[in-house]
Amino acid sequence: MAELQSLGISFPTPAYLAGLVIFTIVGYAAYRYGKKAERPYPKWIGLAMMLFPYLTPETWQLYLVGGGLCGALYWFGA
Fold it and tell me: Taking CA 51 as the corner, what is the angle to CA 16 and CA 69, rounded to the nearest 5 degrees?
């Protein structure tokens, strides 16, 4: 473990992993709903929710963007 940290590699926190799983599952459900109901906003927001965790390195960014996308899904998908 110390060898990986000396190389600058660190493992994500449990909070980050929980957020990653939650936002991916919600994104998948939104994508499937949007595709089945032929509604473009839920489909594309769901796709963004599935992909954005790979672009956010910090836990607070994960929850900030995920919360924003959940709000957009509520606003445009409902």
Answer: 80
Whole-structure pTM value: 0.83
Name 44's Cβ contacts closer than 8 Å, sequence gap at least 6. Answer: 34
* Section 57-72 average pLDDT: 93
Q: What is the pLDDT of residue 22?
A: 94
Tokens of 15: 């909070």
Q: Report d(CA 39, CA 42) in Å as an integer.
A: 6
Distance CA 55, CA 41 (A): 21
Amino acid code (one letter) for 23: F
Integer Cα distance of 67 and 21 in angstroms: 14
Q: What are 21's two structure tokens?
A: 């799983």
Q: Judge whether residue 61 has pLDDT over 80.
A: yes
